[in-house]
Amino acid sequence: MAKVVERIKIILEMIKFEHTIFALPFALLAAFLAARGWPDPLRLLWILVAMVGARSAAMSFNRLVDAPFDARNPRTQDRAIPAGKIKRSEVIVFLLISCLLFFYAAYSLNRLCLLLSPWVLAILLLYSYTKRFTSFAHLILGFCLGLSPLGGWIAISGRFDWLPVVLGLGVLLWVSGFDIIYACLDHDFDQQANLYSIPCRFGIRTGLWISALLHIGAAVFFFLLFPMAGLGLVYLIGYLVTVFFLFYQHWIVRPDDLSRVNLSFFVFNGIISIVLCTAAIIDLLIG
Fold first, then answer.
1. DSSP class per residue in 129-183
2. How many domains, the chain?
3. What is the CATH number of the domain that holds 191?
4. Which of 1, 39, 69, 216 gives a 20 to 30 Å CA spacing to 153?
5. Mean per-residue pLDDT for 192-205?
6. What mean pLDDT is predicted for residues 123-150?
7. Quick one: which of 37, 54, 275 has its CA closest to 156?
């Protein structure tokens, strides 16, 4: 049992389980928006299970297919697979379990969720190959996480709508922007390994400007949620905090000083997802 627990800890560290915080709050927010208040608790539970299953599948698959590159990259050589901390077969088993968990959660929510689930999973897994052929892999990652509000909305309402699409576009641009910032750390390695990214194609300085433009777009879409969802002062305050952290990360990350990229990526963006979504949910509940 101790060995199993140790293996699970290694896997959770490998897939950066705590980064679920980037997409999960937006799926939950969309669920509250669809219900115009508290959704059914059981449905919320299945949304949580679906999100964890989908992200765990995507990340474990990513670690498997990227292992040869991770082994060569000084920044990632200590990851579980290249460092020999865990067997590939164990990661494959975890991947299959995660996929089954995602599909079962989709089945438990509604028919439309189940019908869409194979396509969603295919998109999530495809992302792992995109750096091999396109500099715009960041946008595909943004699209993957941008599906979370649409998923949360459909899980509750069983139908499409424009509101979660607008929220999803905000998430797409936000994630794409911060992923470009993070990709600056691998600029030199990606060039040597013939991998593609916006910093590699346009240079770090231009890449950071593109990231800033994407975050301006994200701020616009997040603001549109204010009138479209009929939100009030609490959301507006959360939105202003979000905008501050969106652009503060561009202040502290410079082309000639990437030492604070991890602070920007892990801390500020976690704050953004929690503050924005919590503010919107509180506004809904008190409105």
1. HHTTT-TTHHHHHHHHHHHHHHHHHHHHHSS--HHHHHHHHHHHHHHHHHHHHHH
2. 1
3. 1.10.357.140
4. 216
5. 96
6. 97
7. 37
